[in-house]
C-alpha cells in the first residue's frame, strides 16, 4: 500500500495556515473601519488614479467586470467612491475615490503595514526578504496576477 502523506508534509498547508492567520486578523482590523478586505483592495487600486473606467480597473486588478461592479456598488453606498460620466464615452462612466475614501486609504494602509509587522516581524530581515522574494517568484512563474480579495 502506498503511504499517505500527512497534511503537514505539504508546503501549501503551511502557506495556508499563515495566510489564513494574517488575512483573518487584517479582515478584523479593516472591518472596524467599516470596509472589507476586498473593498480596501479596490480603494487602494483607485488611490493613485484619477477617475478610471471600471473595465480598466477590472483589467488592472485581474477581476471580472461583474466583480468590479459589485464592489463599486458597495463602496458607492458607503460614500467612499463616486461614479461620474466618462466624457470620452457617453455610454460609460468612471470611478474615483471621494474625499472620505481618499482620507480612509492611508488609514487602512497603516493597518496593513501594522498587520504585516505583527506577523512577519518575528523573522529576521534576511528571512523576511527571502520569504517575500520566493513568494513573488512563485506568483510570477505561475502567472498569478489577480489581486487576492479575501
Query: Overall 3D geometry?
Result: globular
Straight-line N-to-C gap: 39 Å
Order of strands in the sheet with most strands: 1-2
What Rg, in angstroms, do the CA atoms define?
19 Å
The parts where pLDDT drops under 50 for at least 5 residues are none
Order of secondary-structure elements: HHHHEEHH
Using DSSP, what is the number of strands?
2
Considering DSSP H and I runs of 4 or more, what fraction of the residues is helical? 55-70%
Q: Sketch the major β-sheet.
A: 2 strands, antiparallel
Number of helices: 6
Mean pLDDT: 92
Strand content: 5-15%
Q: Which structural class best describes the helix and strand composition?
A: mainly alpha
Oligomer: single chain
Keywords:
single chain, 150 residues, mainly alpha, two-stranded antiparallel sheet
Written description of the protein model:
There is one protein chain. This protein has 150 residues and is mainly α. It contains six helices and two strands, in the order H-H-H-H-E-E-H-H. The chain has helices at 11-31, 37-47, 54-61, 65-77, 99-120, 125-141, and strands at residues 81-86, 89-97. The chain has a two-stranded antiparallel ribbon. Strand 1 and strand 2 (89-97) form a beta hairpin. Helix 1 crosses helix 5 (99-120). The protein is globular and about 65 Å long. It starts with 10 loop residues before the first helix and ends in a 9-residue tail after the last helix.
Summarize the structure.
It contains six helices and two strands. With 150 residues, it is mainly alpha-helical.
Task: Please describe the topology of this protein.
Blueprint: H1 11-31, H2 37-47, H3 54-61, H4 65-77, E1 81-86, E2 89-97, H5 99-120, H6 125-141
Antiparallel strand pairs: 1-2
Helix pairs in contact: 1-5, 2-5, 3-4
